[in-house]
Design brief:
With about 160 residues, the protein is of the alpha/beta class. The chain has helices spanning about 5-15, 30-35, 70-80, 90-95, 145-155; strands spanning about 20-25, 45-55, 60-65, 85, 115-120, 130, 140-145, 160. Helix content is about 25%, strand content about 25%. Strands 1, 2, 3, 4, 5, 6, 7 and 8 form an 8-stranded mixed β-sheet that branches.
């Protein structure tokens, strides 16, 4: 069943001429849970972290290959954000319109004030295809990295490649 959150995304992807393949699966809340459903899905599988600085004045969506780890101290230095930590479920809903377990760059369509900064792993630039939740955790979308970049450009948030 396609939710309203998904429909809003699919309408935008269609408007932008972005092709994707939708893969349905049971709800997953972590990368470890999702791995059970990835074996037949091509492309790089990503994890997405929603972070905030200690003052709560800056928010970051970090997008990286699922097997990588993020050094929050190093990221804080490179973004000049001060100490970083995971943002609350309330902030995730407020800024990206998402719930825990469904964190995705596609949530940027809900960031009307462009308050979320995107941090993109530089290694993703070499990927042919990438995978993300379509704003719900019961499906995964596969699309080309070029189309993902077009989506990001359309959304208009600041993107930092690290």
């Amino acid at each position: 069943m396609i939710t309203e959150k998904e429909k809003k995304l699919y309408d935008l992807l269609e408007k932008l001429g972005i092709a994707y393949i939708r893969h349905e699966h049971p709800p997953v809340y972590t990368v470890e849970e999702a791995k059970a459903y990835w074996r037949d899905i091509p492309g790089v599988h990503c994890k997405n972290l929603f972070l905030r600085n200690s003052k709560g004045t800056r928010h970051f969506l970090v997008v990286l290959e699922q097997g990588k780890r993020v050094d929050l101290k190093e990221l804080a230095e490179k973004t000049a954000a001060g100490k970083l930590s995971f943002a609350s479920a309330n902030r995730l809903e407020k800024y990206l319109g998402l719930v825990t377990g469904a964190v995705s760059p596609f949530g940027l369509i809900n960031d009307m004030n462009k308050e979320v900064e995107v941090v993109l792993d530089k290694d993703l630039l070499q990927s042919d295809q990438v995978n993300f939740h379509p704003n719900v955790n019961t499906a995964t979308l596969t699309l080309s990295f070029a189309d993902f970049k077009r989506f990001l450009d359309h959304c208009g948030q600041k993107v930092l490649i690290l």
